Amino acid sequence: MRIAEARRCTRDVYSARFRVNRGAFREDFEVARSSVQRALGVVVLTAVVTAMLGVAVVALLPPIWVAATTLVAEDDTTTTIRAEQAEASVPVPAGWAMRPTFADESRVTLTSPDGLMQVDLTLRDGGDPVVALGDIAPRPLDALSRETTVAGQELVHANTQDGELVVGVVVSGNALLTFVSGPRAGYDAELAELLAQIDVTS
Which CATH class is domain 70-201? Predict the structure, then answer.
């Protein structure tokens, strides 16, 4: 009898210990799981915030940079644009605005003092000027014309069929300086003056 009672007591003790240990295990497990969930939440939130900041920087940096780097010439001056194997000196008359292109030294945009005429210029290391003209033309072109600039460089240009824009290429050796200028009406003299002073070297 006493032996049986002792055995029951032993079983009761082990059972109580098992329940205590199982309860402690569950409590520890819940604490660990909660900690992991919180850590994952922090990681996910950090990733989302980082991605949002990255998108904001990519979207806002170019216009901010352009606004900060656009200059209005107080006197007649020049700016230089560069490709890998060529460079071009571009005139910037007094009162004109000069706007470089974000992260691209081969391009610049000039705007007349009244803000209406805009000339986009891009320097290329080489290629066929007629092909380049077709590449940059935003609209169908009229017949091509060929001239020689004051600096002795070949000028290939054409008007768009709607008469709004002038598209052209200044050729110097292997270098090509392309431009799109508009509006055309009333600004022929200004464009001619700019092209007369452009100097491309390769």
Answer: alpha beta
In 10 A of CB 185, how many CB atoms? 8
Provide the 3-class DSSP secondary structure of residue 19: helix
Contact 179/129 with Cβ under 8 angstroms?
Answer: no
Question: Which residue bears the tokens 């600096």?
Answer: 151
In this prediction, residue 101 carries a pLDDT of: 85
Are 129 and 183 in contact by the 8 Å Cβ rule? The answer is no
How buried is residue 99: exposed, middle or buried, by Cβ count under 10 Å (0-12/13-18/19+)?
Answer: middle
Q: What is the pLDDT of residues 82-141, one digit of tens each?
A: 999 999 999 999 999 999 888 889 999 999 999 999 999 999 998 999 999 999 999 999
Bridge-partner residues for 147, per DSSP?
A: 155
Q: Where are the alpha helices (DSSP H) in 81-152?
A: 129-136
Assess whether pLDDT exceeds 90 at residue 45.
no
- d(C-alpha 25, C-alpha 177), whole Å: 76
Contact in structure between 134 and 162 (CB atoms under 8 Å): no
In sign, the C-alpha dihedral spanning 125, 130, 134, 138 is: positive
Domain boundaries, the chain: 1-69, 70-201
- Sort 83 into a burial class: Cβ within 10 Å, 0-12 / 13-18 / 19+: buried
Rounded Cα distance between 16 and 36, Å, is: 30
Res 56 pLDDT > 50? no
